[in-house]
Amino acid sequence: MIFNPEHILEQINAQISKAQFGTEPVELYEPIRYFMQLGGKRLRPLLTVFGTYLFSDEYEKAILPSLGIEIFHNFTLMHDDIMDKAPLRRNKQTVHEKWDQNIAILAGDVMLVKAYEYLIKAEASLIPEILTPFNICAAQVCEGQQLDVNFETSDSVDEQKYLEMIRLKTAVLLGLALEVGAIIGDASPTDRKWIKEAGINMGMAFQLQDDLLDVFGNQKKFGKKVGGDIIANKKTFLLIKALVKANKQQSQLLNKCLSDVSINDDEKVATVTRIYQELDIKALTELKIEFYIQEALESLSKTSSPLYKKNTLKKYFFKLAQREN
After folding, report:
1. What is the CA radius of gyration of the chain?
2. In a designed cystine with 96, which of 88, 101, 174, 264 is the match (CB 3.0 to 4.6 A)?
3. Residue 222: pLDDT above 80?
4. 157-189 b/e with 16+ CB inside 10 Å = b?
5. Residues 22/28, Cβ–Cβ less than 8 Å
6. What one-character DSSP code corresponds to residue 123?
7. Whole-number mean pLDDT of the chain?
8. How confident is the model at residue 291 (pLDDT cuts 50, 70, 90)?
9. Is there a contact between 172 and 140 (Cβ–Cβ < 8 Å)?
10. Between the CA of residue 225 and those of 10, 212, 232, 266, 303, what are the distances in Å?
11. CA distances (Å), 72 to each of 42, 76, 77, 115, 217, in order?
12. CA 81 to chain centre
């Protein structure tokens, strides 16, 4: 059976469309159905199936458990939206805006329960092996979110702290997706370790690419307002590097943009972007992305999976790294 990522995505989306989250009360379950149908790349469930494919030809048995990873991811997004007071998610109203905050909190709580419900659709003997790393990862994602919240009021966020935050908040879940898939594919403990590392490193590259697209992306392709991180004073890799490299004049301008609420959004984005260009921050970020891609490929190469299967995932990694949205 030829592994076709597009076909797998169709199967994943079909399963999400017919997923039974619950019926009554409507106010609890309708927001979950609404949120899960907003779309997205379905990157995490696809990586879960990829993880099984690397070590087994029976990769379709990972599709239902992979939904658990995707539902968990969407649970974190729903709660993040509440914390960020975000009005939109994928150009649609967020749940707390369309309904209210209490409903969004409860709906998110149920999504976490449903994540477990789908994870345990894996072979019964594998469930303890799956739930242990899942629980560790779930706590790490929350730790990363808390660090991100802490950074909003911190003046001492350096590159190392930022990279650790995105490792926890974003990258470990990509590592978990591949690890869970590998467990379903009956991979050895050594293979599980290396494929997890590959996923984490790819997750680092993925988040840094997201930071880059937020400033230098094509708005039509990116799907959201370019410069959003600048407007929100997000302490991204780009801003941290710029603050370190800036001369006195550039530093004063950056700090003014961060603190002066009278500066309108368009002017703020234009000024900060110009400073990034003067300091060649785009190239520095691309170098860091390339570093993590190579780390991911190195970890992937250490697995015992057949070369042709590793090359399929390698192509997908490069596709992620070159994405424009």
Report:
1. 20
2. 101
3. no
4. beeeebbebbbbbbbbbbbbbbbbbbbbbebee
5. yes
6. -
7. 93
8. very high
9. yes
10. 28, 13, 12, 11, 40
11. 12, 6, 9, 5, 28
12. 14
| Residues linked to residue 88 through DSSP beta bridges, in sequence order | 93
Task: Report d(CA 306, CA 194) in Å as an integer.
Answer: 14
Amino acid at 105: I
Position 219 pLDDT exceeds 80: no
Q: Are 305 and 54 in contact (CB under 8 A)?
A: yes
pLDDT (tens digit per residue) in 156-192: 899 999 999 999 999 999 999 999 999 999 999 999 9
Residue 1 binned pLDDT confidence (cut-offs 50, 70, 90) = low
pLDDT digits (tens, 9 = 90+) for 118-169: 999 999 999 999 999 999 999 999 999 999 999 988 888 999 999 999 999 9
Is pLDDT above 80 for 293?
A: yes
- Beta-strand ranges (E) seen in the chain are 88-89, 92-93
Sign of CA pseudo-dihedral 219, 224, 230, 234: negative
Q: Please list, in sequence order, all residues whose beta carbon lies within 8 angstroms of the beta carbon of residue 270, skipping any fewer than 6 positions away.
A: none
Round to the nearest angstrom and report the end-to-end CA distance of the chain.
30
